[in-house]
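Lecture 7 notes: from sequence to structure.
We start with the chain below.
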Amino acid sequence: MRTIGEAAAQLGIEAHVLRHWEQVGALSVPRDGNGYRVFDDRALEQARTVLKLRRVGLSLPEVTAAMAPVKSEAQAVVARKIAALEGEVRARQRAITFLRHTVDCRHRYLDDCPDCATFVRS
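Predicted structure tokens for the same chain:
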């Protein structure tokens, strides 16, 4: 059993973050007889899962949905995030390709290069 401060320190985040996650429904933490949050192993593991999902790019509403008890709903949220991330990867790859070309381009001005013009139009 850990206090919110101990749990936050163990996770490397601030206690207010854990409170916010609980407030929005992404985290469920039991309380003791005095109403204080008590992070047992299950609550701490749930907080680790929320933290990992946040770090891979899910918003808090997406995290909450991804942790839904209905597996198909959770899978749908994760599948949409995968598709979005794959789109970002493709866009970044196009950007890298364009920038590499500009580094190696023999034209002094990018406007003079037909390849650069093609990149710009796409």
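Points to note: Residues 68-122 form one domain. The first helix runs from residue 4 to 11.
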